[in-house]
TrEMBL record:
Higher taxonomy: Bacteria, Pseudomonadati, Pseudomonadota, Alphaproteobacteria, Sphingomonadales
Entries under InterPro entries matching the protein: P-loop_NTPase
Source organism (scientific name): Sphingomonas kyeonggiensis
Listed SUPFAM superfamilies: P-loop containing nucleoside triphosphate hydrolases
Protein name per Swiss-Prot or TrEMBL: Sulfotransferase family protein
Amino acid sequence: MYGRADKLLHRIALGSPALLEATFDIERALHGKQLKTLEIRRPVFIAGLARAGTSILTRLLHAGGDFAAPAYRQLPFPLAPNSWARLGGKRHVEARERGHGDGLTHDLDSPEAIEEVFWRAFEGNRYLKRRELLPIAPEKATLAAFRDYMRLVLLSQGGTRYLSKNNNNILRLEGLASSFPDAVLLHPFREPLQQALSLLTQHRRAVALAAEDPFRRRFMSWLGHHEFGADQRPFRFDGAPEPGEDAGHVDYWLRLWDAVHRALLAAPAAVQERQFFLDYDALCAAPRVYGPRLAVMVEAPIDPSALRVADRREAVADAGLLARAGETHARLHARFRGVFG
């Protein structure tokens, strides 16, 4: 997708937090009056652990509701989406399969996890460590700036509601819940061993792709994608793998799965009021049952025909880890049933 000139421009634009902040400041100044008139109503934040259907869910919501979401078209200046839209012109790139090799295609206008560039620019020195990602409480000034970022995305696309796909938001849920008291915090999850195996597969694939193309590794890091691959960094929750542990075995990903979901289940009361745990396996198995209920919850029409059940695989994993993750999965499913019936 990127030629030599594109790669150079992305390196300059995305590689410098100072430049990112400068483009954001200019964008806010240019559109300040318009931003004041834009209301942020019931935003949806899809966040959890990767490989739980987050991309498909984001596309289902984006296609059905009047949502605006970050997209590749905003690159390489994602914090200035309106100005770059005028300067960059109406570029066209044919839809192609994404690097995950899972059959999903994307183009410049597909809703994507671009939002993390904002957090990396403004708070990267606090949570983004060399070998792990730390949960933090965002600064009040950063949260205020993030509201303007959301408004800029709404302004650039003409949407009325903001849609976020960003797994790293599990690091800052309390700040998001306090800033957006009507938000939907949607946490999709899958059966632990199957999700762990999917993460392991994607990790190996991403490592291999980065070895073939070093720019790919840098690009993923600029976007704040550390879920798997050559620059994988675990979320620092209790029980998570330590930095430097072998991510080449399914046990690593089972431990991460359990640590992340236990942390989500133990969120403060203010977060729990906005949290919705979505059993993606159940949704795929009974889309006609749970699709309409999800649509009511997020207040947006949903066409669940794109949902698909992933093939089950077998693997040898630590029995103790499987039992512990199974207990966590049962608690997640109970929360899911409590809302979705």
